[in-house]
Design goal:
The protein has 6 helices and 2 strands; from the N terminus they run ααββαααα. By secondary structure, the protein is mainly α. It has a domain at 49-111. Strands 1-2 form a two-stranded antiparallel sheet. Helix 4 crosses helix 5. The longest helix has 13 residues, at 72-84. The mean pLDDT is 76.
């Protein structure tokens, strides 16, 4: 805060400036070293892909997926097929059809269930609309 210190900081010293002009810095990057780690996994080739099995929903989804994976539309389709016809669409058939692991298909069928749409009969709808709603006061 003192003015003497501020003045000393802002003052340029000609001796130091001439010494600074003589300084030359040269920078070089070290040679690149290839790290040889056995624990790192680098992809050696491109992942193998398969065409999706979408049928009439083809425009809604991707065209190719890596083997061992399924698209969203395929997942919904196979879950719905299994729900409607479990004796035909078994876990083994789904695994073979979509190039999946059997344990992954079993987990998929166990933990993911498609929604069911229920429609109320028309007479129930009439009964509900015939009821006079209470007015709030």
């Amino acid at each position: 805060d003192s003015p003497e210190i501020k003045e000393e900081v802002l003052r340029k010293d000609d001796r130091f400036l001439t010494l600074l002009k003589d300084v030359y810095v040269e920078s070089r990057d070290p040679p690149a070293q290839v790290k040889d780690r056995g624990d790192e996994h680098l992809p050696s080739k491109q992942q193998e892909k398969r065409l999706t099995k979408l049928g009439h929903l083809e425009a809604l989804d991707v065209k190719k997926v890596p083997k061992g994976k399924i698209s969203l539309v395929e997942a919904l389709t196979l879950l719905n097929n299994h729900k409607l016809q479990p004796q035909i669409w078994t876990a083994e058939k789904i695994a073979a059809e979509y190039s999946l692991e059997l344990k992954e298909v079993n987990s998929l069928l166990e933990f993911f269930i498609p929604f069911t749409v229920l429609e109320f009969p028309k007479e129930t709808k009439k009964a509900l609309t015939g009821h006079k709603p209470k007015q709030l006061t």
